[in-house]
Amino acid sequence: MNKSVYSLVLMDDVIQAVDAEAYRRGTSRSNLINQILAEHLSCITPEMRMQEIFCSLTDLISSSFQIQQQRSASLMTLRTALEYKYRPTVNYKVELERSPDEFLGTLKVRIRTQSEPLINLFNNFFIYRVKLEAAALAQLSYENYTCELCSGSFTRKLINSGLNEEQNGAAISRYLTNLNQSIQAYFSGPQSFRQLAPELEYEYKNLLEEFII
Fold first, then answer.
1. Are 68 and 13 part of one and the same domain?
2. Tens-digit pLDDT profile for residues 156-205
3. Helices (H), ranges, the chain
4. Are 100 and 4 in a shared domain?
5. Could you tell me the pTM of the whole model?
């Protein structure tokens, strides 16, 4: 969506109120004014589109996730505690593109710990997960799987497959739920994961039959 620069003459009191509300929402003055005018005139902005996706995600996401305060229209942060000693936290950050093209946005998963054994477990899980996702998407002729694995941090692009906002929210919700269940199972122990992995992989592949994400 293109933008242009315009000059507006507004009352000082109006600007003060706009600035206070923009700060509360974590956005800029011009972006807030754009949103207010768009809502009043029934125009669809990128912020509205992203908010609709996040609303759908919030409605459908598993109760095992805690949704953090949203300070940006394009970013949502969720977290879960691992069923592991010291209950380390895993953070999930979903950042949507304002004008999605090939990718809808980016997912970043990070474990909050200083423990090297835990970080190694996290890294080993995602080595397995990357192979699973890349192979499953390739079977569906999606070769643009893009990801990065660093120490204790995994980032991947969310594929834009032309879904509407509600469907995108549902797809992200189901993906995060399956991913989190898989992480939890992996950290619970290798033996139990070997037993649970086939069912979790089957659920992931079922997801891809409905949504490419």
1. no
2. 999 999 999 999 999 999 999 999 999 999 998 878 899 999 999 999 99
3. 12-25, 29-40, 46-60, 116-139, 165-188, 190-210
4. no
5. 0.81
